[in-house]
Design a protein that fits this description.
With 496 residues, the protein is α+β, with helices and mostly antiparallel strands. A hairpin with a 5-residue loop joins strand 1 and strand 2. Helix 1 packs antiparallel against helix 2, helix 3 runs antiparallel to helix 4 and helix 6 packs antiparallel against helix 8. The chain is rod-shaped. About 7% of the residues have low confidence.
């Protein structure tokens, strides 16, 4: 079952079915228990009425017994013999005996008080417990009916050829002569069976109908809720087929999860479109930048092949070096775009800057370095080669634009290590201070490519800085030129 609607409808239907079945069973059990208790109460009332007559010494053959169909009654003595039974009772089960014909018994048929002081008139039980096997059964005193809860049983009774189920109650009573008798009276369970049967039939009919309604409503609601998802899927399929990343999926007007999904999808498409455009521009610019040194080198080699004496070896070497540097820059940018993570080497930026400056003794303009002494380490964590690349690119950029001075300094500031490179050149206009970090961007278009570079140095420097959780910005230097500031998170001092 691959449809979300079908799975949702089926799941909701199963849950509702289990809940309804459980609730229905509980209702049936409670209803049956209540109706059975009512039948037991009726049986107890009938039994106590007959037991009351016995306690008043009414002879067993003169007992006023209720109608057998409503309340079938049996009266048994202490030995379990049947001494009285309802008229027209043909058969009975579930009581103390299944007999329906009275048996001979020692029960007196006339009134007798039996109140001799010497205990001579009959066995006096008083309020004591019977001394037989059932020691927990309380025997009523003479002329009284047992106040204990009766024993209840279920059984059947046949009256005038009709058999029905009954709830029987057993109540004991002691005559004035001291004879204890037990009255078994029943109440019909027809009402309970009819009510339970009606409720059961109603549930069997109503449950499937209710489940069909639940399934249909769940199906329709799920279909309505998932309709925007289908629109999103269809649009994404069209975008994939057309490769047109400028298209966007429809956003529903609701503020639910589907609307947030549509907005997130459109944001992803926007980012993907920008990435693809950036990649296309990068490939186009890279092809354009590579074409110039390759064409120059080819021209020099062709001239040298035809006229060896005219071969410009220094020029060919220069073009080869430039081509090699450009290829290295492109390779580094490709690795950065692929998500290459920087290393976790512990570095002292002061020592790294001092090393980079010491290697630039032949620059057009000497670099003035302001680096704290080794006693004040300025440590960061990252890739030594990539961080050195940032410093080198910033110094190269300053050398190309400076008129007479280039300065670099290193300091700490609010948990960061700051490397600042300044020059006294024309500076960067405020409106161009973000564009200067884009790839293949050169603000001095009049400058020749050989002197101005390919426009990748600052882009590489900012990308590397971001990979190290740092920032690279440009402002105006006190000398009037550009001031580039690299901020990197300082490595915590474990001794503090």
């Amino acid at each position: 079952m691959r449809s979300v609607r079908a799975r949702t409808a089926l799941g909701a239907t199963v849950v509702v079915a289990v809940a309804l079945i459980g609730a229905g069973l509980a209702v049936l059990l409670v209803l049956r228990a209540n109706l059975t208790d009512q039948a037991g109460l009726q049986a107890e009332v009938a039994a106590r009425e007959v037991a009351g007559q016995l306690a008043l010494d009414v002879p067993v053959h003169q007992l006023d017994l209720p109608d057998a169909e409503e309340h079938p009654v049996q009266v048994t003595d202490e030995d379990g013999r049947l001494v009285a039974v309802s008229e027209d009772l043909v058969a009975i089960t579930g009581t103390g005996t299944d007999r329906v014909e009275p048996q001979a018994s020692a029960v007196p048929t006339s009134t007798g008080t039996g109140t001799d002081d010497d205990g001579g008139g009959g066995d006096r039980h008083g309020g004591e417990d019977r001394g037989d096997d059932d020691a927990n059964v309380s025997i009523p005193a003479r002329g009284e009916v047992s106040a204990d809860d009766p024993d209840f049983t279920n059984g059947t009774a046949t009256v005038d050829g009709g058999t029905a189920d009954y709830r029987f109650a057993s109540v004991s009573a002691t005559t004035g002569a001291g004879v204890t008798l037990t009255v078994h009276a029943g109440a019909p369970l027809a009402t309970e069976q009819k009510a339970v049967g009606s409720v059961r039939r109603a549930m069997l009919i109503g449950l499937p109908v209710m489940l069909l309604i639940v399934a249909a409503v769940t199906w329709l609601m799920t279909r309505r809720a998932l309709r925007p998802v289908e629109g999103i899927r269809a649009e994404m399929s069209a975008i994939t087929a057309s490769e047109d990343l400028s298209r966007r999926v429809p956003e529903p007007g609701s503020r639910d999860e589907i609307a947030r999904l549509a907005r997130t999808t459109n944001e992803t498409l926007t980012a993907l479109e920008a990435s693809v455009d950036r990649q296309r521009r990068f490939v186009a610019d890279a092809s354009h930048e590579l074409r110039s040194p390759i064409a120059s080198l080819r021209t020099q080699l062709e001239v040298g092949a035809a006229h060896p004496e005219l071969l410009d070896v220094p020029g060919a070497v220069t073009d080869t070096v430039r081509l090699q540097a450009l290829a290295a820059d492109l390779l580094l940018l490709a690795r950065l775009d692929a998500g290459e993570r920087p290393g976790s080497t512990r570095l002292d930026m002061g020592a790294l800057v001092h090393e980079e400056v010491s290697q630039r003794a032949g620059d057009r303009i000497p670099v003035t370095a302001s680096v704290p002494p080794p006693s004040e380490p300025l440590e960061v964590t990252g890739s030594r080669s990539q961080l050195a690349r940032i410093v080198g690119n910033l110094l190269d950029n300053a050398e190309r634009h400076a008129e007479s001075s280039v300065a670099v300094s290193v300091r700490t500031e609010r948990g960061s290590v700051v490397v600042a490179v300044s020059d006294d050149g024309p500076g960067v206009p405020e409106s161009e201070r973000e564009r200067v970090f884009e790839r293949f961007v050169r603000l001095d278009d009049a400058r020749s490519r050989d002197e101005g570079g390919a426009g990748l140095g600052l882009a590489i420097a900012r990308d590397v800085a971001r990979r190290h959780q740092g920032t690279l910005t440009v402002t105006r230097s006190p000398e009037g030129g550009a001031r580039f500031e690299l901020r990197l998170p300082a490595r915590p001092d474990p001794d503090r």
